[in-house]
Amino acid sequence: MIAVDLTRSGPAPGAGTSGSHRTIALCGLTMIVEGFDTYAIGYVGPAIAKEWAMSQVQVGLVYSIGVAASLVGSVVFGGLADRFGRRRLLIGATILFGIATLLGAVAGGVGTLIVSRLLAGIGLGASIPCALALATEAASERHRASVPVLMSAAIASGMIFSGLAAALIMPAYGWRGLMAAGGIIPLLLVALMYWGLIETRQAEGEEEQEKPWRILTQRPIATLVVVMTLALFGTYLVAFFMSFWLPSMLTPLTADIQGVGFGMMVIKTASLLESLTVAALMARVQPGRLLPATFLIGAVALALGLRDHGNFTTTVAVLAFISFFIDGAFSGIIGFGAWIFPSRIRATAIGVTTGMGRFSGGTLGPMAGGMMLDRGFGLPAIATIAAMPLLMAGLLVAIAAGIHRRGNA
Hints:
mainly alpha
């Protein structure tokens, strides 16, 4: 087995400072829209369940189908992006999930909604490795570790905007209005992407184009892929459970969807603040030490803080504190994955690790949440169960950091 160098390459020649900054900004906007479209379904779930008389388990299936489909987008599009360019694949993915979300807005039944979430999931899953690879390679060496974390923070921003949009749009236009907004916005963004994105992938010969998938089977990359996939599994499991089911858990504590939307906005604002904090620290503190500590604090906060408080304001405040650490760890691990893989396989490796982690953890998390809530599990029991995958993810990140250090020694 051939050893693979983990050294990271610089931005594509001729990209230029303005082009690089523009590309990073547009990738960030794309991730905001990705976060909006991914998590807006959590707000429309209770309304759809009421309108179509669906059980919690059926709603969990609708949540999970898009997450499962994102595996196809992440793995297939990520591999194609390393061979044919990240720019065109990112634009195509954005068009796909925009149109698919609009289809969901006019769905007349569960079948059409599932098809919509299936297609949207492919596009949403594809957008992450393409945007992360583009933004990471457009960044300077000094900010190479921080920029991908900022991209994850942008996803958290999209979650915030989806909560605000739910509070403002759904009272007047219902769940279809929120999904329509989630489809129109990415299609408007495509015009800016076509004008402003630069291609960071350097031209390669046919032999080089065939290498990304082969390199994934060589040490130490293969080991890193396995470790990061397992870490992302634990992280996505908790993150998707919290993001999709928090609106349903908050609904009994307040009178209307506006209260739920603004409560979620407060929670996700705390998540964004921690993501920005992690991004700032990643340029100064060894990521292999910072992220395991963040996971540990998040797990302890979740296990001890998530209780049946009974009061809406208190519950939102506690959840904001918990999310401050959990979503900071979530943003950090996605950025860490973009940072440790070399440029020529970056989109492929991100696609495989985030795709598999998102598929397994992101599918199990919402479905497990639906089953636990249906069976009457209390918040303390749910919190204790959810803390375990976070501890596992923190340990695996520390292992990945050790592999990376040895590979660059």
